[in-house]
Amino acid sequence: MILQQLINGIMLGSVYALIALGYTMVYGVMKFINFAHGDVYMWGAFFAMFLAHFLGGQFLPVLILTMILTGILGVLVERVAYKPLRRAPRLVVTTSALGMSIVLSNLARLLIGSATYPMPKVLAVHDFKLGPSAVINNIQILVLVTAVVLMVLLNWFVNRSRYGKAIRAASEDQETAGLMGVNMDNVVSVTFFVGSSLGGAAGLLVGMYYDAVYSTMGYAAGLKAFTAAILGGIGSIPGAMFGGLLLGIVENFAGAFLSNYRDGIAFLVMILVLLFRPGGLFNAKIYQKRV
Amino acid sequence: MSKKRLTQYVLLAVLLVLVPQFVRSDYALHLMIMVAIYGILVLGLEIILGQTGLFSLGHAAFFGMGSYTSALLVMRLGMPIWLGIVLAVLASGILGFLLGFPTLRLRGDYLAIATLGFGEIFGLILVNWDSLTHGPMGIPGITRPEIFGVVFDKRMYLYLIVLLFILALAAAFRISNSFLGRTFRAIRDDEDAAEFLGIHISKYKILAFIIGGMFAGLAGGFYAHYVTFISPDSFTYEDSETLLAMVFLGGAGTVIGPVVGAVVLVLLPELLSFMVQWRMLVVGVIMVLVMIFRPQGLMGGGMKFLKIKKKEVARIGEKE
Amino acid sequence: MAILEFERASVHFGGVRAVDHVSSEIEQGKITSIIGPNGAGKTTLFNLITGAYKLTQGDIRFRGQSVARLSPHMVHSLGIARTFQNIRLFSSMTVLENIMISTHSKLKPKVLGIFIPGTFKRVEENMKGMAEKVLVLLDLLPKAGYHASALSYGEQRRVEIARALVSDPEIVLLDEPSAGMNVREAKELIKFISQINKDLGKTVVVIEHNMRVVRHISDKIIVLDHGCKIADGVSEEVLRNPKVVEAYLGHSRLTTYAHVR
């Protein structure tokens, strides 16, 4: 029972972490909460559903194409709703992001439908017994492995590649990075592409795991992933991974006892973190009063 | 009061009394009632968001608190409706305090997301506290108010709600034109500076939430006794987002702007009937477009706080 | 008589000792200048007095009463008002409204009063009257209805000072009031600061880079460097102190010359 909850928690947590990375990368560079990210993730799940339908049981091509399509969607969202507001106050950008979130989720409802759709089978399901009462299936293993591989790749990208370094520089100090010859437009586009493509991957994985895709799935998942991002300290990539896992595990254990309030637990964690630890558990000081 | 002002007021009053008399369609009466209810509701958010700059995404919770409080008190305890609504206003004010107090330190989008979380938790309680709220089934058959044994019909309800709306509007204008409104706007523009100038900002931020909550509670109480059926579905984050769009569309910080926003966003989807399905999409598109092209809103003239900041010119002798 | 006393006042941010063991006094009715190179901790000292930061160690007393634990609005209502180095006027308000905000500590208006017609009118007129008086003093009355952002830089600085004066404080803390002013404006400022001091009887503490201003107005100078007090005393003496000359000129010759101009 405990082992099973732990497995489910780690599973769910690794997906939260993938989505949380999108929030945290954008926050790092642009310093605002991209409310639309949860809905980009939802679109990722729909892209995956269509791709899986046409390509059949080929996991890797579906994953890669989903990530590319979702990445492009993320860049489009940035171009339409945030780019004209590059120098506007944060309140304005946040509102625009909120509007974009509503647009994306309602477009999905109007264009595709408000039903819950099954994900076409990418793999046949096999169960593996782990001890007397814990079961793990190959889809869960695949979800976990994919999430870990993507995070390792991201780590490499951010720390080693040219664009990754530019993103890190822009997160530290946008103005200086700009003066040093970093093209901010490109950095922002790459940030949105990478963050959104990870969200898309999460969409595919969640769709496979629950065998369900629907137009409002971005809302709760987005909020929870955001919670994960602040748990680990928003703007910090390892923090988002850690926060995702922690939230997934906490939610699973607490949810086992209070099933009706399962979502409420995540929200409660969110509020508590915002109130008492807005800089995350490792407390990056972002709220020092400055005069 | 000048003679001209007086004639204007008299004319307005005559119009308000006469117009409903000529409205024959039930549907038109219904729309006017909804506009007035949303007008009161959005004035509350105007005080929280427009005047004080507190990005609240949980306004539907105050609305729901008002509706449920009055409905439950009247249905369960047999309280008179008028008392129920008064207590609904108080309850929503208390909820404003409960939300405002812990979130004092949060700013901008952090506050937005925290209030969103509060709203969600409020919704979950409505759904899950079955024994009190009837859960997702909601509360049907809420009584309409009556006076001298006559139950209010739509036209009478319209008179009542318009009267309340005018009172609410007058109160909002009075707040905005007083030291209280100035203090709210000072907090919105620069809360640290305001504190150094002797403003007890915690007190005023909580007060903004309490006053905003009370407006929403009033709207909620009358909403419950008008539609006679409420359920958790009537008070979701989508409603909070719609209210936000009303405020920004009309012009945050202008008092009258958000009311205009409410008129537009209540009527628009109804007038273009194919849009009912598209309502939320329209809300989202409006939010993005307004932010890009007219962040000060339709009625906003001098709302500099939402305009794009000019790059600060470095001056000799200035450091940091 | 000392109206404001620092007793080993210190504040540390992480490992940085922004203000370190500063002990000194501000004399009532005098003009005291705080000088020192950039990053010496001058503004931080203001922030400590006004309650923005909490002291790590030591104490600051106003009329013998500790202000170390008070929040900014409480310090203000005791009678210590300040301006900001980077002008912080409320951008959506007029000059008059900007100044009216600052009358809270003095008038302590009641919220429910706004719904009582007589009270509402009285409070508003009180606030307006107080603000207009200060505007006359600063020669800003014709600009009362302007949006703060429509004013020139020098005028905005004056509005800041007006905002500090309107609550009739005992101590006025001015954070680089001459920054960004031209020579003529700076001269007027000197005159005006003495006027605040002599005619209104205010105790003035001013952070200043412009040595001409400092020399002209100061009764006393406190010199900070790297968060520590390196000298204080009567102005001519302090400015000739070799330690001060070294710290000040040695660190930032360029800025000093830029100001002397």
Automatic annotation (TrEMBL), chain A:
GO terms for cellular component: plasma membrane
Record CDD domains: TM_PBP1_LivH_like
Subcellular location, record wording: Cell membrane
Domain of life: Bacteria
InterPro entries from the UniProt entry: ABC_transp_permease, BCAA_transport_permease
UniProt keyword list: Amino-acid transport, Cell inner membrane, Cell membrane, Membrane, Transmembrane, Transmembrane helix, Transport
Membrane topology qualifier: Multi-pass membrane protein
Coiled coil: none
GO molecular-function term, one example from the UniProt record: L-phenylalanine transmembrane transporter activity
Main location (coarse class): membrane
Transmembrane segments: 6-28, 62-82, 91-112, 139-158, 187-210, 265-284
One of the GO biological process terms: D-alanine transmembrane transport
Family: Belongs to the binding-protein-dependent transport system permease family. LivHM subfamily.
Protein name stated in the entry: Branched-chain amino acid transport system / permease component
Organism whose genome encodes this protein: Acididesulfobacillus acetoxydans
From TrEMBL, chain B:
Annotated TM spans: 7-23, 29-49, 56-75, 81-101, 110-129, 156-175, 206-224, 244-268, 280-297
Main location: membrane
The entry's keywords: Cell membrane, Membrane, Transmembrane, Transmembrane helix
Family matches, as CDD domains: TM_PBP1_LivM_like (cd06581)
Signal peptide extent: none
Any one GO molecular function term: branched-chain amino acid transmembrane transporter activity
Location within or outside the cell: Cell membrane
Domain of life: Bacteria
Pfam families: BPD_transp_2
Annotated Gene Ontology cellular component terms: plasma membrane
Topological type in the membrane: Multi-pass membrane protein
PANTHER family: HIGH-AFFINITY BRANCHED-CHAIN AMINO ACID TRANSPORT PROTEIN BRAE, HIGH-AFFINITY BRANCHED-CHAIN AMINO ACID TRANSPORT SYSTEM PERMEASE
Protein name in UniProt: Branched-chain amino acid transport system / permease component
Organism, scientific name: Acididesulfobacillus acetoxydans
From TrEMBL, chain C:
Keywords associated with the record: ATP-binding, Hydrolase, Nucleotide-binding, Transport
InterPro entries: AAA+_ATPase (IPR003593), ABC_AA/LPS_Transport (IPR051120), ABC_transporter-like_ATP-bd (IPR003439), ABC_transporter-like_CS (IPR017871), BCA_ABC_TP_C (IPR032823), P-loop_NTPase (IPR027417)
Domain ABC transporter per the UniProt entry, residue ranges: 4-251
Domain of life: Bacteria
GO annotation, biological process: D-alanine transmembrane transport; L-alanine transport; L-isoleucine import across plasma membrane; L-valine import across plasma membrane
GO cellular component annotations of the record: plasma membrane
Enzyme class: hydrolase
EC number from the UniProt entry: 3.6.1.3
Molecular functions (GO terms): ATP binding; ATP hydrolysis activity; L-isoleucine transmembrane transporter activity; L-phenylalanine transmembrane transporter activity; L-valine transmembrane transporter activity
Record Pfam families: ABC_tran, BCA_ABC_TP_C
Protein name in UniProt: ABC transporter
Native source organism of the sequence: Acididesulfobacillus acetoxydans
Phylogenetic classification of the source organism: Bacteria, Bacillati, Bacillota, Clostridia, Eubacteriales
